[in-house]
């Protein structure tokens, strides 16, 4: 491969290229408007059109580098690989009808043939390259690789200005329907909103060409904010696929945390994986899902990809057709597909399995799979912090949370003990198949009793102890109740025996609970709940409400009319029977 054309590149382009080398390794020729036509004029060329600012391109870079090395090491590859930097040569990319990044086009003897529509996976691209290669002599035997399983159009660029988009009633739905959109609902007078504003502006710049970063001024567009369920400021919500896909963001609001969430939430919801890479993925994530299939099914993969978007990238979902994993994890052969949940960096055995039915009906799969994905997404052990609290305690599937109050002196030791207890709990679930028995998910968590001492005392009447004993409660945060003693009225202990027995008693409704609220707070919450229910009924059934109100008013009117009539009649009767003032 000849590299002499690099000397003709403008100095600014060379500097820009070097600046992005760390993020985007390049092992193929970089083409420019001056040498593009001459370079592709002879032979078969696979050209990647990319932008160094595009996170999909950066994610794909290692795969592209590997493909380029394979081609370079082949003495007779029958195909050449090259790249075009669309950030530097936008006109050239426009000329070749590039609609998104990265887009890979095939050219043969200078003529455009097609662009690659498959998943950007190493094996699939290797097969694609082999299909289009034109070696000058016969090539040796090739390893069979499955055909591309899911069409994937080039990614449409969003947030191209790098600025926050201001939304109103007129453009809200159209902007959200473009693709992944992260929205801040705020009020100008809100102090927290003012503090978040600079980070939101920087986030828009960071996510340029990736997703929309937008905001709604609720003082000016109150009806719009109300329609989106805004109850406090600022409220952050992510819309992956339109208005109906809204998911409220409840994690940290530091810029790095917002960036990490946006990157993860906008990444492909379903990613292919090799069986050999599973252990590494489990080691890198506290929870992952693995979709096992007997063979590549584009329709099912598309359905599962759409369903997995509800997770917003956490936990990640991978797919594979590796038959050895069916055997390793004892997945029944009759199941055409299955989803396995792996937690706490343990790839030895899944904590839960969802066995797919023979039917591939998208609606029925979504109805059954979505609750399962949401109810298995939490790790067995965790730490309750300001960033993780909402995701664990207010999780949609309402888990039971075992909370151990820790201090600086014992936090590390307690964390290790919780991991051991969590490991034993996973073994218990596997042995007794508890996960499928309708019982609630359980999370074993530690919480800093020094930082959150006031809250923990008011909610659970506990605090960190200096005598070596670790206070423990089982919290049911959805119902604002908790358990701190076993069936023998003995305080719970941080041991598997004590906690497992208590959890089983909770599942069987045999354990007495305590309220996290006092009597006045419970009455107030009850009345507020009734008022909220009434408001919901009025909004949901306006005609029934009008009928009931009018009917009630008519009934009241008739009752009052009858009451008045009876009083007049009584007065008349009394007047006729009573003696008058006259002598006769």
TrEMBL record:
Pfam families: Thioredoxin (PF00085). Keywords: Membrane, Signal, Transmembrane, Transmembrane helix. InterPro entries: PDI, Thioredoxin-like_sf, Thioredoxin_CS, Thioredoxin_domain. GO terms for molecular function: protein disulfide isomerase activity. Residues 11-134, 146-267 form the Thioredoxin domain. It comes from the Eukaryota. One of its GO terms (cellular component) is endoplasmic reticulum. GO terms for biological process: protein folding. The chain crosses the membrane at residues 541-560. Belongs to the protein disulfide isomerase family. PANTHER family: PROTEIN DISULFIDE-ISOMERASE C17H9.14C-RELATED, THIOREDOXIN DOMAIN-CONTAINING PROTEIN 5. This is Thioredoxin domain-containing protein. It comes from Pleurotus ostreatus (strain PC15).
């Amino acid at each position: 491969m000849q590299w002499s054309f690099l000397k003709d590149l403008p100095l600014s382009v060379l500097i820009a290229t070097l600046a992005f080398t760390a993020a985007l390794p390049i092992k193929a020729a970089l083409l420019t408007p001056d040498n593009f036509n001459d370079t592709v004029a002879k032979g078969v060329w696979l050209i990647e059109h990319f932008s160094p600012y595009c996170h999909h391109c950066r994610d794909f870079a290692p795969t592209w580098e590997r493909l380029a090395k394979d081609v370079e090491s082949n003495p007779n590859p029958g195909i050449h690989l090259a790249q075009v930097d669309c950030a530097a040569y936008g006109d050239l990319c426009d000329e070749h009808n590039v609609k998104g990044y990265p887009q890979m086009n095939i050219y043969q003897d200078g003529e455009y043939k097609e662009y690659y529509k498959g998943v950007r996976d190493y094996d699939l691209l290797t097969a694609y390259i082999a299909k289009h290669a034109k070696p000058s002599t016969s090539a040796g035997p090739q390893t069979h690789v499955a055909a591309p399983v899911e069409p994937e159009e080039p990614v449409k660029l969003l947030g191209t200005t790098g600025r926050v988009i201001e939304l109103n009633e007129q453009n809200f739905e159209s902007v959200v329907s473009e693709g992944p959109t992260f929205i801040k609902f705020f009020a100008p007078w809100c102090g927290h909103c003012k503090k978040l504003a600079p980070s939101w502006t920087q986030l828009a710049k960071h996510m340029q060409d990736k997703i929309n970063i937008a905001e709604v001024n609720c003082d000016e567009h109150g009806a719009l904010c109300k329609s989106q369920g805004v109850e406090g400021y600022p409220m952050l919500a992510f819309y992956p696929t339109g208005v109906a896909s809204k998911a409220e963001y409840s994690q940290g609001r530091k810029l790095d945390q917002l960036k990490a969430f946006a990157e993860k939430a906008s990444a492909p919801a379903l990613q292919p994986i090799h069986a050999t890479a599973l252990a590494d993925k489990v080691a890198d994530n506290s929870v992952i899902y693995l979709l096992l299939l007997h063979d590549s099914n584009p329709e099912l993969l598309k359905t599962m990809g759409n369903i997995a978007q509800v997770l917003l990238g956490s936990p990640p979902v991978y797919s594979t057709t590796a038959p050895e994993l069916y055997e390793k994890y004892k997945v029944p052969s009759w199941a055409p597909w299955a989803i396995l949940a792996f937690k706490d960096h343990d790839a030895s055995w899944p904590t839960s399995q969802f066995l797919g039915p023979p039917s591939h009906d998208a609606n029925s799969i979504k109805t059954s799979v979505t609750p399962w994905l949401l109810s298995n997404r939490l790790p067995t052990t965790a730490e309750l912090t300001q960033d993780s609290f909402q995701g664990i305690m207010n999780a949609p599937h309402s888990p039971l949370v075992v909370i151990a109050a820790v201090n600086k002196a014992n936090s590390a030791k307690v964390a290790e003990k919780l991991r051991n207890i969590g490991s034993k709990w996973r073994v218990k679930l596997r042995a007794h198949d508890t996960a499928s028995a309708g019982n609630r998910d359980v999370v074993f968590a530690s919480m800093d009793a020094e930082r959150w001492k006031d809250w923990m005392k008011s909610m659970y009447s506990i605090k960190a102890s200096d005598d070596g004993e670790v206070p423990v409660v089982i919290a049911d945060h959805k119902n604002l109740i908790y358990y701190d003693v076993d069936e023998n009225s003995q305080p719970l202990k941080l041991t598997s025996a004590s906690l497992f027995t208590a959890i089983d008693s909770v599942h069987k409704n045999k354990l007495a609970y305590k309220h996290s609220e006092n009597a006045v707070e419970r009455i107030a919450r009850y009345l507020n709940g009734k008022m909220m229910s009434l408001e919901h009924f009025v909004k949901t059934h306006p005609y029934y409400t009008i009928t009931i109100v009018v009917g009630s008013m008519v009934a009241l009117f008739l009752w009052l009319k009858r009451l008045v009539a009876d009083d007049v009649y009584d007065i008349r009767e009394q007047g006729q029977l009573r003696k008058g003032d006259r002598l006769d």
